[in-house]
């Protein structure tokens, strides 16, 4: 097969591993910077150009679209879909997962546990107080909707601090969520890697001393973990409800069961492969193979 990998940086661990895994299984791997693709929308013949040449004979696409490139990146994925080429992450699922508020609404409607969350746009004092009270009061977590890898996530220890941060963000016209702080999680969360409706790896991420964010980019540590039946079911259902063929589901262990913090449509491979020793990149290539080779009528 000829598999196109959409990535902006050939030196990223995840990019290198997917290219390597595909080549090891005998596939031709084509690396495309989605921001350098030119889309030609034509009746009956949608096509794509990269570096001045038309992209042809591609059998499948693996999108690795960063948050800052969601709009154009999803358009590129959608163009491949119009060309009737299988994409490991569908364009609509990519857009849906990047909207944190919409994602939480979808998960909550499906009966999936999430931290109590509030969203408001009014800068009035009484409205801010109500927001904080409605999620259980301080301490609470304040998140920018556009933040990634723990950036734009603040733990407000008390009511005064929470109110000050919310006021500042509102004055900057920044979209944000205010969430309850799950104290019993102890600064840890679970990253569950789901591919094609199956869990292929899971790790526990622990924040470093003095930090509440467990992201590995923020100095957190990772270790392999055995998931409970409820945690497994929650991760699989979350990926399914958001329509993601590949997903990194982040869970908090709370006194009322697993709570979904976020579902990532382009989860990194380095931390999960390092913690588990599992060839996650190979699992993704196998997923692509199953969908390409099992097309109806072929």
* Main CATH class of the largest domain: Alpha Beta
Q: Please indicate the percent range of residues in DSSP E strands (runs of 2 or more).
A: 25-35%
| Alpha-beta classification | alpha+beta
Principal-axis shape = globular
Fraction of helical residues: 25-40%
> How many β-strand stretches?
16
- Uncertain residue ranges: none
> How would a crystallographer describe the biggest sheet?
5 strands, antiparallel
The CATH topology of the largest domain turns out to be Rossmann fold
Total helical segments = 9
Oligomer: single chain
Order of helices and strands: EHEEEEEHEHHEHEEHEEEEHEEHH
CATH architecture of the largest domain: 3-Layer(aba) Sandwich
Integer tally of domains:
3
Query: Strand order across the biggest sheet?
Result: 14-13-12-15-16
Terminal-residue CA separation = 14 Å
Rounded mean pLDDT is: 90
- Specify Rg, calculated over alpha carbons: 20 Å
